[in-house]
Design brief:
31% helix; 8 helices; alpha+beta; 4-stranded mixed sheet
């Protein structure tokens, strides 16, 4: 029996039981409060929408431990990236949350029994999110499962793998919103980081969705990495922030909810490798996504140049203490402060050039001393006596 069907049965039972007293007599609907009537209507609508949206049957998974190079190569060959094999390759990489070239001997890989072009078939998010029914567009991210879902008025329209922030520079849970985008962005902190299809979602911390390498675990500097096709899809689907008086309006772009944290004790893998089918789990999402608290971010992970205009500055100053108290940051973990590598390289280059100039100056001074010494030696040499015939 599928997970969706079970949920539907439970909801139907709740609806029936809520309309009956403890003796099994049905209540007169006119006796229901407005809140009870609304709850009943919501439950009925949710059941109908779940049945309408989840049209995917059960897809079983095989969890295969890779014990040899030959075994790995055989699986990679079956899921090669040739154009005619695109559906298989994308579903395979999605389920394993990593690019093919990061797959190694010793990994456990997830292999589905069949391959669907619509990757929502593999989603662990509810196909219909009743709490988001009045939100035109919404993105929900799971650090724990390294994936995200996109919703339009509560209906899931896209499911994708992602790799979020590593433990010392994590992607913190909470509410965000998309701010601005750039088709081919060079990081303001490190110009060597080139990020196609960038969507910034925190104006001050510099967090962004973008295409980048996908090793299959939380590995970024707090950004949310994606495969290219997902980054491109999101780039054109999302709405950015409104601008008022030359400033971005806070949380006015398409909203984002990060619902949990990654299990860093597992290091280079996660719970998705243990799933047996696409119906194993359905993540529980916040009842009211727009009431989720703004993400708490420590001030050490705000670039120095962006700290001057921080709103609610005290929240950032006390952010690390708050996150540690909540268990978001594990005991003993030292956060990595945001570093402007462009400035560091500039300073290192300037220091190198200064040293080179000083070395040249020293060499010139030595040459001058040598020449002066030579002249002095020549003037002090005794004159040769004339030879007599």
């Amino acid at each position: 029996m599928g997970k969706l069907f079970k949920i539907s049965i439970v909801l139907v039972i709740i609806i029936i039981s809520s309309s009956c007293d403890r003796f099994g007599h049905r209540h007169d609907r006119s006796n229901l409060t407005d809140e009870q009537a609304q709850a009943r209507a919501d439950s009925i609508e949710q059941v109908k929408m779940l049945q309408k949206c989840d049209t995917f049957g059960v897809i079983s998974y095989r969890n295969e431990y890779i014990s040899s190079k030959e075994q790995l190569q055989s699986i990679l060959d079956a899921h090669n990236d040739a154009p005619e094999n695109m559906v298989k390759n994308r579903a395979f990489c999605l389920l394993n949350r990593k690019a093919r070239y990061f797959m190694r001997v010793g990994d456990t890989l997830v292999i589905p029994e069949r391959y669907e072009n619509n990757r929502c078939a593999y989603s662990i998010f509810p196909q219909y999110y009743h709490g988001a029914k009045d939100i035109p567009k919404l993105v929900v991210v799971s650090n724990h499962y390294q994936c995200y879902a996109a919703y339009e008025n509560g209906v899931q329209v896209h499911f994708a793998a992602c790799n979020t922030g590593k433990e010392t520079t994590p992607t913190y849970p909470g509410r965000y919103a998309f701010v601005w985008r750039d088709l081919l962005h060079k990081s303001s902190l490190d110009s060597e980081w080139v990020m196609p299809f960038t969507w910034n979602f925190h104006q001050y911390a510099g967090c962004a969705f973008h295409q980048f390498t996908m090793p299959g675990y939380a590995a970024s500097h707090s950004c949310i990495r994606q495969f290219r096709e997902d980054a491109q899809w999101l780039y054109y689907w999302v709405k950015g922030a409104k601008v008022r008086h030359h400033n971005y309006v806070h949380l006015s772009g398409t909203p984002i909810i990060v619902i949990d944290i990654f299990d860093f004790s597992r290091r280079h893998t996660g719970p998705w490798v243990s799933l047996k089918s696409n119906k194993d789990i359905v993540l529980e999402l916040p009842k009211n996504p727009m009431e989720v608290e703004d993400a708490v971010i420590p001030i050490c992970q705000i670039p120095v140049g962006s700290r001057g205009g921080l709103p609610h500055r005290s929240t950032y100053i006390h952010g690390e203490d708050t996150l540690r108290a909540r268990g978001v940051i594990r005991p003993g973990v030292v956060l990595t402060p945001t570093v402007n590598f462009n400035h560091r390289r500039r300073d290192e280059l300037q220091a190198k050039q200064k040293k080179e100039l000083e070395d040249i100056k020293k060499i010139d001074e030595l040459k001058k001393l040598e020449e002066l010494q030579k002249v002095q030696n020549e003037t002090m040499m005794p004159q040769a006596k004339p030879q007599l015939d």
